[in-house]
């Protein structure tokens, strides 16, 4: 059995990954809308995952706070357009969702990739949950990668932390960048 993971490190440039949204637009998932300088990318397993649906439905409670501090939000998965359209029936969200994340793109993000347990679960390999915050210099400011649907950042704490990080008076650096060679 061989495994492949190549994690994105804090401070690294976020890869340019283009995906479609239901509105018909193609977006670079790491680039915030023009009025924002940072982006929160939420990678979720797909329509088949009730934990993902719950997490995505919690996000709208924090969108205004995130937007107020200049953070734009997008969610992405490996689901097809049809699967996302079906999923939208159980989502009550106010941020864009992109679909079609390929295995190559999952690998570029360094997410864990799982195979479905049965055809009833889903019809494709999928990314396990991950969360990336990309700063105004296209650097990964915050990264959280899980190998299962049960471990995800608590949103209230994340939003409060991002507000603190973005406050220039705190001079808070990107964490996790210790370099033994220096």
TrEMBL record:
Pfam families in UniProt: AhpC-TSA (PF00578)
Entry superkingdom: Bacteria
InterPro entries registered for this protein in UniProt: AhpC/TSA, Thioredoxin-like_sf, Thioredoxin_domain
Keyword set, alphabetical order: Oxidoreductase, Peroxidase
The UniProt record lists the keyword Oxidoreductase: yes
Residue ranges annotated for the Thioredoxin domain, each copy included: 8-164
Single GO MF annotation: peroxidase activity
Gene3D superfamilies the UniProt entry points to: Glutaredoxin
Protein name: Thioredoxin peroxidase
Organism: Idiomarina piscisalsi
């Amino acid at each position: 059995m061989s495994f492949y993971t190549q994690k994105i490190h804090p401070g690294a440039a976020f890869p340019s990954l283009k995906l479609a949204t239901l509105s018909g637009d193609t977006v670079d998932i790491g680039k915030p809308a023009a009025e924002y300088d940072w982006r929160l990318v939420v990678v979720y397993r797909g329509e088949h995952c009730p934990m993902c649906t719950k997490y995505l439905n919690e996000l709208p409670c924090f969108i205004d706070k995130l937007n107020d501090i200049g953070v734009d939000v997008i969610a992405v998965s490996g689901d097809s357009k049809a699967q996302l359209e079906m999923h939208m029936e159980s989502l009550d969200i106010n941020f864009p969702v992109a679909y079609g994340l390929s295995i190559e793109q999952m690998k570029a993000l360094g997410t864990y990739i799982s195979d479905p347990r049965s055809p009833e679960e889903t019809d494709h390999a999928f990314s396990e949950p991950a969360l990336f915050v990309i700063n105004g210099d296209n650097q990964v400011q915050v990264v959280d990668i899980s190998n299962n649907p049960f471990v995800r950042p608590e949103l209230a704490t994340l939003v409060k932390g991002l507000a603190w990080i973005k406050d220039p008076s705190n001079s808070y650096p990107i964490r996790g960048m210790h370099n033994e060679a220096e």
